[in-house]
């Protein structure tokens, strides 16, 4: 717990407070599902009230959208290193596997996090993502010797594969239990293995 005794007043203090909230949310989402994460607990982790948290993020979705943007930046940093040493398919796969929170948030981005955005909020969010993706596109197009349009399409297809594989390899409720039986084990899927196979097909 990071105890904060005074209300943030200047821009530097506010930026620090916002980052502390994001850090607390990150720690929670590592081991909990999105549904299990509670803003009250995040506020307690930071040492502020829930009302104070709402001064920085108007709801749970906006908090985790901000965390998604932060993790996308980390994905690109990872990709910069992976593309130096690996072939494109391996680099893309390793990049995602090394950023599990990004993968987890990607799986709920379209169905949960984006669903209540206003038109202005949606435009701003997607514009931010597009700006970051252009950096990712530049890395892939250079490494794979392809034009930017093709690189962007491959990254979108990779994201589609990531979302589908995540859900199929992370079943919940009764399904999670029954596929442990020998007769239904064919439905069990290893996330890393399946993701790698999909990305290799996309890059072919």
Task: Describe the overall structure.
The protein is mainly alpha-helical and 204 residues long. It is 74% helix and 0% strand. The protein folds into two domains: 11-53, Orthogonal Bundle (Arc Repressor Mutant, subunit A); 60-203, Tetracycline Repressor, domain 2, CATH 1.10.357.10. Helix 1 (11-31) packs across helix 4 (60-85) and helix 5 (88-97) packs antiparallel against helix 10 (191-203). The chain starts with 10 loop residues before the first helix and ends with a helix. The model has no long low-confidence stretch (mean pLDDT 94).
Structural descriptors:
10 helices; Arc Repressor Mutant, subunit A; Tetracycline Repressor, domain 2; 0% strand; 204 residues; 2 domains
How many structural domains does the protein architecture include?
Answer: 2
Order of helices and strands: HHHHHHHHHH
How would you classify the helix and strand content by structural class? mainly alpha
Rg value: 19 Å
Q: What is the overall number of helices?
A: 10
Mean of pLDDT: 94
What is the CATH domain class of the largest domain?
Mainly Alpha
CA(first)-CA(last) distance:
48 Å
Number of strands: 0
CATH superfamily of the largest domain: Tetracycline Repressor, domain 2
CATH names the topology of the largest domain as Tetracycline Repressor, domain 2
Largest sheet: none
Percentage of residues in strands: under 5%
Measured as a percent range, the helix fraction is over 70%
């Amino acid at each position: 717990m990071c105890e904060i005794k005074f209300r943030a007043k200047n821009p530097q203090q506010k930026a620090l407070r916002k980052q502390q909230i994001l850090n607390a949310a990150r720690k929670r989402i590592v081991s909990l599902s999105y549904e299990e994460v509670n803003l009250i607990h995040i506020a307690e982790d930071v040492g502020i009230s829930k009302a104070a948290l709402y001064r920085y993020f108007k709801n749970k979705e906006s908090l985790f959208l901000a965390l998604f943007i932060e993790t996308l930046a980390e994905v690109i940093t990872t990709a910069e290193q992976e593309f130096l040493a690996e072939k494109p398919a391996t680099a893309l796969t390793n990049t995602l596997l090394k950023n599990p929170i990004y993968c987890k948030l990607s799986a709920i981005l379209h169905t949960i996090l984006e669903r209540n955005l206003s038109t202005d909020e949606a435009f701003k969010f997607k514009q931010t993502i597009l700006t970051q993706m252009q950096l990712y596109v530049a890395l892939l197009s250079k490494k794979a010797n392809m034009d930017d349009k093709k690189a962007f399409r491959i990254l979108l297809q990779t994201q589609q594969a990531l979302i589908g594989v995540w859900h199929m390899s992370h079943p919940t409720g009764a399904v999670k239990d029954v596929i442990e039986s020998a007769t239904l084990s064919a439905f069990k899927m290893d996330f890393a293995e399946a993701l790698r196979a999909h990305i290799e097909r996309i890059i072919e």
